Amino acid sequence: VNDTLGHTIGDLLLKQVATEFREVIGKDDLIARLGGDEFAILHAGCDSGLNSAAAIAEKIIARASRQRSIEGHAITVGASVGIVATFDGQEEADVLLKNADLAMYRAKTDGRGTYRIFNPEMDAVAQERRLLELDMRNAFVNGEYKLVYQPQISLDNQEIVGFEALLRWEHPERGLVSPEFFIPVAEETGLIIQLGDWVIRRACMEAMQWPDHVRVAVNVSSIQFMRGNVINSVMSALAASGLPPQRLEIEITETVLLEKTEQNIAILEQLHALGVRIAMDDFGTGYSSLGYLRRFRFDKIKIDRSFIRDVAQNRESGAIVHAITKLGVSFGILTTAEGVETQEQLFHLAREGCTEVQGWQFSKAIPAEDVSSVLAV
Ligand code: C2E
Ligand code: CA
Ligand code: CA
Ligand code: CA
Fold it and tell me: Most buried residue among 16, 79, 242, 244 by CB atoms closer than 10 A?
């Protein structure tokens, strides 16, 4: 409310809401505004099943979300409630509030407009999360991140034309941590911007050791794309390494074009103007809109692994792969099949006119120091 309507209406709204809440709580209960849009309610004499507290939470959620109008503005409000019990009153007030907050946070992440009752496991999850975040920051200092490279093979001549850089985290205790686990955390905490910047720099540096015709593909998270400064990251990585821009390929997913499409296409155009190539990653999985292909001239479409897996057996997967490769041919865009694991898939893709393949059939991702020996074969 504050963002769009200014403080006055926001405050009016909160006063109104607080008054309404007072009507649904018990006459011995207390309500206080904690600051911002958060309220605390102290409810006395609850049964051990917390039924009366849950009933109040339900009433509050229903009350808050009623249609309302303030100074001519139609306003919708949602409420999320966290409940914590203290039977003997032994806990410190700030511990109670912290636990109520954890429960409220859980209510929010479980879909808003609902309530959750605190349990100690919520604290453990939050604790685990904080440790992970801290670890991820330390990993920079300790040099625990590294890149591995998976070859991309041209079906024209069976030669390696590039490598996709894939991030790895070698944690001293956790072992090798999968990017599928830590990248979402990095995205939530904003660390992805710093991490993504490091990935681009590192990939450009390492690619400088390879022959001139071999490209490097780098994944850029949509969060980094929208909140960071990708153009600066790319320009400084190219300048620091001396890598020719044509040898760098940026992989983005469709989520980049989902919001602020015009603004993000403008960024893609600027990257193109630098001479950098742009690939559409995981094509077919997200919000695939052919319109995106018309609005920006991608250099490459990467067909998602989920379609390649059963391309030879499943008619629908076969039809999707067929359609994407044909689209690529008529648009003059390269098509790369991801996750090629068998000879059968390979034959099928070659027959369809797919231009490049990547997958365990050829090679898993390898350490930087092994790239030259793979290229020599
Ligand atoms: P992705 O971009 O789709 O990367 C391809 C993933 O498929 C990689 O998993 C790769 O190891 C795996 N793969 C390759 N060939 C095969 C195959 O034949 N069979 C199977 N089953 N899998 C194969 P990885 O390295 O675990 O990366 C997972 C995801 O994490 C990536 O998916 C990408 O979205 C993200 N990621 C990895 N590195 C980075 C990075 O530096 N930055 C960002 N933003 N995301 C990254
Ligand atoms: Ca809030
Ligand atoms: Ca990728
Ligand atoms: Ca992919």
Answer: 79
Establish whether residue 179 lines the binding site of ligand 1, counting it when its CB lies within 6 angstroms of any ligand atom.
Answer: yes
pLDDT at 354 over 60: yes
Q: 124 in a domain, yes or no?
A: no
Q: Give the CATH number, domain containing residue 21.
A: 3.30.70.270
| Residue with CA at minimum distance from ligand 1 atom 22 | 339
- ipTM over 0.90 threshold: yes
Quick one: pLDDT band at residue 294, thresholds 50, 70, 90?
confident
Which class for 51: exposed (0-12), middle (13-18), buried (19 or more C-beta within 10 A)? exposed
Within this chain, do residues 153 and 278 fall inside the same structural domain, yes or no? Answer: yes
Enclosing H/E stretch for 151: strand 145-154
Number of independent structural domains in the chain? 2
Residues 29 and 168 in one domain: no
94 and 153 in a single domain? The answer is no
Judge if the beta carbon of residue 1 lies within 6 A of ligand 1: no
Q: Span 153-176, mean pLDDT?
A: 95
pLDDT at 252: 97
